[in-house]
Amino acid sequence: MKPTLKDIRPLGFQWQTQDPFLFCAHHHDFFPRGLPDMSPEAGLENRMIGQDFSGKDGWSMYHGSKVPGFPAHPHKGFETVTIVEKGLVDHSDSLGAAGRFGNGDTQWMTAGKGVMHSEMFPLLNEKEGNELHLFQIWLNLPKTKKNVPAHFKMMWKEEIPVETVRDSNGKTTEIKLIAGKYGERRALPPAPDSYAADPSNEVAIWLIKAAPDASFILPEVSQGTNRSLFFYRGDYIDLEGERISNDHSIDLGDMKSFEIKNGSQTGYFAFLQGKPISEKVVQHGPFVMNSNQEIQEAVHEFQRTQFGGWPWKSHEHTHEKGRGRFAIHADGREEIK
């Protein structure tokens, strides 16, 4: 392997990332038609309800018992960036905030000193299947930001910049900018206390769609900056003289730019970049701190306070079926799309 390519790995359900990222989960479910209560029309027999990651018949219930998803659970000490390309997510949290987002939207949540939230996948379509395609990226916080106030920000699809570039043969590549910049085009600002809020950290989160036979450039970065390209759909790419098939991630060397030559099918990629935080990471489930003692303190704090308690009727809270995309923030501010 060339020294400019640090590592090439097969992809799995949970993608391995580099500092400052902790991991990326990739969900692509083809749920059946929904019932009036937004649960799957297909029966739930032969599934381990509460712990179903089987992918049976092309979908999983995850931790949901009626509606698929992730009932109320805590986070502390890091950030989640949830990019929903297809389908919808119902968010509820211990701050009293809520929302329904998806079909191109992104939610950026800084857990900071602690928050409890649920992420349920309501199956609104009763006439045909309900496809869900999302990425959830865990971005670490440095020690100085581990205890900032919890906060979430919505990035609605109508506002997220998409840069279209053409190669010398006129082939196009679309780059959806969740964080960072490409050329002169900048993403929306992240959550205010985010590690990505400081441009000197060079954090980039992009989704890339390359036409068949298109070439595109990943620009050069500062020394020490980590970069990973996740090739999750397509046939192959040519990079630095190597042919790499889909379902692989590539950790790239720093400083130089890279030309990616896509194969004969449309290529789909996720790209993560950032300067490493370079601090000790101690993780215990949804708590990410810098020492074992801090983890113990975080667990005890959650047991004592529930990070504000749970103001909703159910830990698997879903919103009214007829509601569209919306967000209600902890301060009462409401956004409707």
Automatic annotation (TrEMBL):
PANTHER family xref list: PIRIN (PTHR13903:SF8), PIRIN-RELATED (PTHR13903)
Q: What is this protein called?
A: Pirin family protein
Q: Name one Pfam family in it.
A: Pirin_C
Domain (Pirin C-terminal) ranges: 209-308
Species of provenance: Cyclobacterium plantarum
Annotated InterPro entries: Pirin, Pirin_C_dom, Pirin_N_dom, RmlC-like_jellyroll, RmlC_Cupin_sf
* Domain Pirin N-terminal, residue spans: 64-139
Q: Which family does it belong to?
A: Belongs to the pirin family.
Per the UniProt entry, the signal peptide is: none
